[in-house]
Amino acid sequence: MMHEIELSAAAVLAAKKLFNHLTVDDLSAAGFTEEDEAAFGELYRGVQGYIEELEMTEGSEA
After folding, report:
1. How much is the pTM?
2. Count of other CB atoms within 10 angstroms of residue 47
């Protein structure tokens, strides 16, 4: 099942920061399962598209 969500630029940038510092070891230590880790990977890939779009938009405004 696919869901669409709207995110502010601040939320996208916060997610980028989180994913840049979060490791699989961190998730495991926090009790997340391999299935959870795969779901985080899916979330990362979804957010990554927005990050790239934001960076391109910011670059064109410079």
Report:
1. 0.69
2. 20
